[in-house]
């Protein structure tokens, strides 16, 4: 039994993890500062130890993570920068003996897909996680590849335009699923809620909304295409809450296939690979982080 804690910019998700199953789930607003965060984590552990015994805690966090468990640039949770989560837990009386593992959120999601999901049995693949920003986990020779500085897959800083004009010129902001949903909600004049937005999009004849969505899917398809070229992958899976929408996967796949027709030499040289939805949705980070703890 492992206690999984997925720290996000808006919410913290918690649950007991056994293989690909997550039970006794909870979802809490993420603390606003480090002091509140420490108290919040302490309470989570104390509450869960009353429910069932465990000796391992697996964290999924935004930002880069080194092998010691230190977070560098906590992304949407900036106060975690430079914080060692293993030490943070061990410094609490009665919690010194917990085994703590920490993994970047996108890499954790990828580990889950490699172990039990859509990347299982794949030698070389990748998971693209669409959320507030964009994260990627890379599987090379059936191992999670982290790179020289534990930053492999940090595609948020990938330049997507020939001339850099601002934040939108980078993948992280330009392909933010959160920003897309907000923009579509505004254009379609519906509540800023993913399922509601997609429901409205399917029935709407709004050309601007259709173009906005089409451009987004093309951007994701180009990212898939470029990753294929660099890493010679077998499969790419797309995760994040927005990946639950079949329309998104359908349009990304359509745009990806279209890229192979832009020049005859591309079709002669390259073969399209599988691009599909990731298996795990909301529990992906918990499952993957716990997998690292095994």
In short:
This protein has helices at 34-49, 85-90, 105-116, 171-174, 177-188, 194-203, 207-231, 246-259, 264-269, 284-292, and strands at 2-7, 11-18, 21-29, 56-61, 64-65, 71-72, 99-104, 125-130, 134-140, 143-145, 235-239, 274-277. The protein has 294 residues and is an alpha/beta fold. 41% of the residues are buried.
Structural class: alpha/beta
Strand order of the largest sheet: 3-2-1-4-7
Number of strands: 12
Distance between the termini: 10 Å
Counting H and I runs of at least 4 residues, what is the number of helices?
10
Order of helices and strands: EEEHEEEHEHEEEHHHHEHHEH
Uncertain regions spanning at least 5 consecutive residues = none
Strand content: 15-25%
The portion of residues assigned to helices is 25-40%
The chain-level mean pLDDT equals 93
Largest beta-sheet characterization: 5 strands, mixed
Radius of gyration: 20 Å
Form type: globular
Family: Belongs to the ROK (NagC/XylR) family.
InterPro entries: ATPase_NBD, ROK
Pfam families: ROK
Protein name: ROK family protein
Key features?
ROK family protein, 10 helices, globular, 5-stranded mixed beta sheet, 294 residues
Q: How is the secondary structure organized here?
A:
Elements: E1 2-7, E2 11-18, E3 21-29, H1 34-49, E4 56-61, E5 64-65, E6 71-72, H2 85-90, E7 99-104, H3 105-116, E8 125-130, E9 134-140, E10 143-145, H4 171-174, H5 177-188, H6 194-203, H7 207-231, E11 235-239, H8 246-259, H9 264-269, E12 274-277, H10 284-292
Parallel strand pairs: 1-4, 4-7, 8-11, 11-12
Antiparallel strand pairs: 1-2, 2-3, 5-6, 8-9, 9-10
